[in-house]
Amino acid sequence: MGTATIWVQQGTSTIGNSVCDMIETRASDGLVVVATHASGIYSTNITSVNDIVTVKDIAASKSDLQLRNYPNPLSGNTTIEFLLNNKANVNVQIWDAYGRLLETLVNEVMVEGKHSVVFNKKNLKPGIYYYSLTADKRRKTNKMIIVE
């Protein structure tokens, strides 16, 4: 490592900001296993150099669809915020852990820029749910946690 080393965060939508306690690899089949503190264990098989995400790939994906909600975990309302790089037909939906559509919050053409929509958990039970943003043919899904 030198001054030219560039560190980038991997797994932002899965591992997030969790501490990675251990990373193990197995060269025979390209298995990589990452153990986190509080977020579980993740694994993948890297079978090609094309499976490796580069700094340029991460920069491109960050500028594509940006989606977040706050607060998360939530006990009442949460604000779902997203950024569009161009005008698009937008769909924002809420899903349960089984992949069943619970509610469509937005289904309209929206202009470029920052947008937000408020979601009220209503009578949903505590647990893990998902919200998705579809903008034309691009899609991003994030997890939200509902507590009492």
Q: Which architecture of the largest domain does the CATH hierarchy give at level 2? A: Sandwich
Q: Which CATH C-level class of the largest domain is it? A: Mainly Beta
Please give the order of strands in the largest beta sheet: 7-6-9-10
Tally of individual helices: 1
Q: Which stretches are low in confidence, meaning pLDDT under 50 for 5 or more residues running?
A: none
Secondary-structure element string: EEEHEEEEEEE
CATH T-level fold name of the largest domain = Immunoglobulin-like
Number of strands: 10
Radius of gyration: 18 Å
SSE class: mainly beta
- Summed over residues and divided by their number, the pLDDT gives a mean of 84
Shape: globular
Q: For the terminal residues, how far apart are their CA atoms?
A: 46 Å
The domain count comes to 2
* Share of helical residues: under 10%
The amount of beta strand, in percent, is: over 45%
Task: Walk me through this protein's architecture.
The protein has 148 residues and is mainly β. It has 1 helix and 10 strands; from the N terminus they run βββαβββββββ. A 4-stranded antiparallel sheet has the order 7-6-9-10, with no helix packed on it. The model has no long low-confidence stretch (mean pLDDT 84).
Which tags fit this structure?
single chain; 148 residues; Immunoglobulin-like; four-stranded antiparallel β-sheet; 7% helix; 52% strand
Explain briefly what this protein structure is.
The chain has 148 residues and is mainly beta.
Secondary-structure topology with pairs:
Blueprint (H helix, E strand, L loop, with lengths): L18 E8 L4 E7 L3 E5 L9 H10 L1 E5 L6 E8 L3 E8 L5 E10 L2 E8 L6 E9 L2 E9 L2
Antiparallel strand pairs: 1-2, 2-3, 4-5, 5-8, 6-7, 6-9, 9-10
